[in-house]
Amino acid sequence: MTAMRRFLANGWLSAYAFLYVVFLYLPVIFLPIFSVNTAATPKFPLSGFTLKWYEDLPRTPALLDAAWNSLVVGVSAAILSTVLGILAARSITRYRYPGRRAINGLIMAPLVLPEIIVAISLLLVILQLGLSLSLFTVVLGHVLVCIPYSMTVLTAGFEGFDRSLEEASADLGESAFGTFRRVTLPMVAPAIISSLLVCFTISLDEFLIAFFLTGTEATLPIYIWGQLRFASKLPGVLALGTLLLAASFLLMTIAEILRRRAAKRTQNEGGLYA
């Protein structure tokens, strides 16, 4: 009887997981399908196959400018978030001090707070400081959003790390910074690269923060939002969305492979995707 209940429970769980994945990703599947349709309107049956919408993308100056802006913002946010994430993860995993859990909770707060509230709050703070809206303010907002993800990935790299290696380095006369640079960082390098990729992907796809904090220089999500007002631009938007979807999937897959490698090296399987 117990075996039967367990079998039924596993069956319902598998069915639920399947339906959840279908509900989540079925709309996304239509994106690449309609992006190669010859008709400008996304509807069935398809009128034909074409790559014209993809070929037109490099000929759009506004799109190229938005892509460059997203690249600048994404790389900057990824580097800053990873550097701050390294410091935070190192502190959380290595030291015990009053308020450590509260600080960790504050760092992770952007994951649970409504993003529109975070965006409006950042906008008010930036305006009160007298800063003009630009790509710099977008980077600041993206760093705030990306740090929790970076810290989660890096914590998996630092936890389970054999401290005897650092102690051996110190016994051999190496300084604390030298030990961190020569021993610790190489061991958690896969986690660092994974953090960079995750943060870049999140920044590349992030819309709401950029919508409130951008100035006259649009990022790719803002550009896509602006193009949706024109029906004739929809096929190009579908093609661009397909490319962004493929790029995000590829980067997240590489990040997960590197995270697992880091977890294996440190004998720890925790982390963002576990």
UniProtKB/TrEMBL annotation:
Alphabetical list of Pfam families matching this protein: BPD_transp_1 (PF00528)
Membrane topology classification: Multi-pass membrane protein
Domain ABC transmembrane type-1 per the UniProt entry, residue ranges: 67-255
GO CC annotation: plasma membrane
Entry's transmembrane regions: 12-34, 66-90, 102-127, 133-154, 191-214, 234-255
Keywords from the UniProt entry: Cell membrane, Membrane, Transmembrane, Transmembrane helix, Transport
Localization per record: Cell membrane
Protein origin, superkingdom: Bacteria
GO biological process: transmembrane transport
Gene3D superfamilies: MetI-like
InterPro entries: Bact_Polyamine_Transport, MetI-like, MetI-like_sf
CDD domains registered for this protein in UniProt: TM_PBP2
The family this protein is said to belong to: Belongs to the binding-protein-dependent transport system permease family. CysTW subfamily.
PANTHER family in the cross-refs: PUTRESCINE TRANSPORT SYSTEM PERMEASE PROTEIN POTI
Entry protein name: Spermidine/putrescine ABC transporter
Organism annotation: Mesorhizobium sanjuanii
